[in-house]
Amino acid sequence: MPPAGDDYKPPAASALALLWPALAAEWPRPAAAPPAPGAEDHSQPPQSLRRLAPDWQPPLFSDLRPAAPAAPASAAAPAVAYDWAQDTARAVGIVAHEWLRRIGDEGLTAWDRARLDRAQGLLRIALAEEGVPPAEIDGALQRVVLALATLVDSARGRWIFAPEHAHAHSEFALTASDDGQLARIVVDRSFVDAGGVRWIVDFKTSQHGGTDLEAFLDNEVGRHRAQLERYARLWSAFERRPLRLGLYWPLHDAWREWAHEDAPAPVNNAAAPGRIG
Q: Does residue 119 sit in the same domain as residue 210?
């Protein structure tokens, strides 16, 4: 660092000289010279030590209580054993959910097949960042694009992301007390329809390759119902209105819905397409 002082100027050939007109006023100035030996300095009051009294004790915080150890997860909300056992399938779900969030934030009218085609390069990068090996990138990309394109083109997808819904959220994080413990959930999609019904929708990127799709969907509802009921229970602590739950599989354009067990019956659900199941 160059020496401080009012008379300092950097060498003319240096880079600092080019910046000096802007920096000169801000450059640190030398501190005041120390007093000569033996001279009395009255600029600062004399320092003295302050000691605590011999009988001093720290205050007692009688209201503090030791934190209770975290209890194991409630049996009423068992962890769902996803069939995303393979890393590639897990990455497909992560990337698809992120782009469904973008669709929700930007609005469905901003998305069409052409834009999805243009986004394939970014989707490929996102899958690679999630650890999909090069040999599996093409297949994973095909699944993500199919999921997004199916939703964009479907009546169900357009209803889920309809702009006329009120209080709509995508990837909405919520922290609430659940049976005396703090719980954090992330809801894929939620909104209030024209009839005043709150919907909580969960997207599933699992894919069924067999012939009995209905049986597969019924089985999936059984696996995920407790998860969505827990979401509804936590949400109900903040909002009192009719509440319905939905599962949507964009790879199949498949849908299941039901009323939350603790919520009042919906007043009007004319805004929703015909129900399945």
A: no
The answer to whether the Cα torsion of 191, 192, 198, 204 is positive or negative is negative
Residues 186-209: tens digit of each pLDDT: 999 999 999 999 999 999 998 887
Where residue 215 sits, what CATH number does that domain have?
A: 3.90.320.10
Split into its structural domains, the chain has a count of: 2
Q: What CA–CA distance (Å, rounded) separates 236 from 218? A: 26
Do 17 and 11 contact (CB within 8 A), yes or no?
yes
At which of 95, 130, 153 does a domain end? 153
Strand bridging mode 198-203 / 243-249: parallel
Specify the pLDDT at position 159. 95
Separation of alpha carbons 154 and 150, rounded Å? 6
Question: Within a 13 Å sphere around the CA of 273, how many CA atoms are in the beta-carbon half?
Answer: 16
Instruction: Write down the pTM of the prediction.
Output: 0.63
26 in a structural domain? no
Candidates 82, 102, 77, 103; CA nearest to 93 is 82
Q: Which residue has the tokens 């399945």?
A: 276
Q: Locate tokens 């954090």: which residue?
A: 184
Q: Identify whether residues 179 and 140 lie together within a single domain.
A: no
pLDDT at 52 over 80: no
What residues make up the domain containing 233?
165-277
User: Rg of the Cα trace of the chain?
Assistant: 31
Name the one residue in this structure whose structure tokens are 């299941």. 256
Q: How far apart are CA 202 and CA 189, in angstroms?
A: 7
Using the 3D structure, point to which of 127, 153, 179 is the last residue of a domain.
Answer: 153
